[in-house]
Amino acid sequence: MNDPITVDIPHKLGLATARAKIEKGIGKLASFVPGGVVTEHRWEGDTLIFTVEAMGQRVASRLDVMETKVHASFDLPPMLRLFAGKIRDKLTESGKKLLK
């Protein structure tokens, strides 16, 4: 069973601009795992559903883009659970940079 972690990233961009920045920087979304690559992604309304692959692991991920925040959810496989705290910190830091 995977162990999801969630992060809320506040922003002041508005929905359309936040979504555009995420679309433009989609490759950066995999940086929370060393060597991570976004292997598939799709938008369902204002939700980006994507998969990050690294170190033989697949991380099912989603970003719910809202007017004043992005709610991120990542389902960590067992091997990556040990690094959940560091991954959460990296996601928060990277997310804030992406939404500047």
Give the SSE map:
Blueprint: E1 3-10, H1 15-24, E2 37-44, E3 47-54, E4 57-65, E5 69-76, H2 78-81, H3 84-98
Antiparallel strand pairs: 1-5, 2-3, 3-4, 4-5
What labels describe this entry?
100 residues; alpha+beta; Alpha-D-Glucose-1,6-Bisphosphate, Chain A, domain 4; 5-stranded antiparallel beta sheet; 3 helices; 5 strands; 29% helix; 41% strand
Structural description of this entry:
This protein has 100 residues and is of the alpha+beta class. It has one domain: Alpha-D-Glucose-1,6-Bisphosphate, Chain A, domain 4 (2-Layer Sandwich). Helices cover 29% and strands 41% of the residues. It contains three helices and five strands; from the N terminus they run βαββββαα. The protein has helices at residues 15-24, 78-81, 84-98; strands spanning 3-10, 37-44, 47-54, 57-65, 69-76. It has a five-stranded antiparallel sheet with strand order 1-5-4-3-2. Strand 2 and strand 3 form a beta hairpin. It starts with a strand and ends with a helix. The model has no long low-confidence stretch (mean pLDDT 91).
Number of strands: 5
* Helical stretch tally: 3
Distance between the termini: 34 Å
Overall pLDDT score: 91
Q: What is the top-level CATH class?
A: Alpha Beta
The strands making up the biggest β-sheet line up spatially as 1-5-4-3-2
Give the proportion of residues in helices: 25-40%
Cα gyration radius (Å): 13 Å
Order of helices and strands: EHEEEEHH
At CATH level 3, the topology is Alpha-D-Glucose-1,6-Bisphosphate, Chain A, domain 4
Please name the fourth-level CATH homologous superfamily. Answer: START domain
How many domains? The number is 1
Poorly predicted runs of 5 or more residues = none
